[in-house]
Design a protein that fits this description.
Length: 162
């Protein structure tokens, strides 16, 4: 991923008002290892059910606000991330929903996907972070795992932007 600045992040939200994005607390970006990221994401320190995700696309960065569902019956079993396909024990993923951009979002329409609760998909795909339940035995090499994560992320973003 190409490095992004705090101001670029604030101006790239597609499902949040400009006034809310200006008030948003964006983490300090010094020391971020951008080369090993497919996306940059963080959770809101004041509200852990809110998360923010930034993707570098050919036309510039795109940022989305996500909401994690509260723990419910969905979290009583093992699960797999819809982006990086990492297996997690109970509670390791969350159903993150995002309001759609534009008029659809203003009407309250949203899309959702189970994603690693810690948003560390890039680290799992690159095997820089050990999977909580061990890595699945796959025939995909590193580049293919990264491409699968990027493709899944792009499909999720497309649903948000439509």
């Amino acid at each position: 991923m190409k490095p992004v600045t705090q101001s670029e992040i604030r101006s790239s939200f597609v499902n949040m008002s400009k006034s809310r994005s200006r008030a948003l607390t964006v983490p300090v970006l010094d020391g971020v290892d951008w080369e090993d990221l497919d996306f940059y994401a963080w959770t809101d320190g004041r509200d852990l059910s809110r998360a923010y995700l930034v993707v570098q696309r050919s036309d510039g960065p795109v940022a989305v606000e996500l909401r994690a569902t509260r723990r419910s019956a969905d979290f009583r079993r093992k699960s797999i991330c819809g982006l990086c396909f990492t297996s997690h024990p109970v509670g390791g993923t969350a159903l993150f929903s995002a309001l759609k951009g534009g008029k659809e979002g203003r009407l309250g329409n949203s899309v959702a996907l189970y994603i690693c609760r810690n948003l560390a998909c890039s680290g799992y795909a690159r095997k820089k972070i050990a999977a909580p339940m061990g890595q699945m035995d796959e025939t995909l090499d590193l580049d293919e795992r990264i491409a699968r994560t990027v493709k899944s992320l792009e499909a999720f973003l497309t649903k948000i932007l439509l």
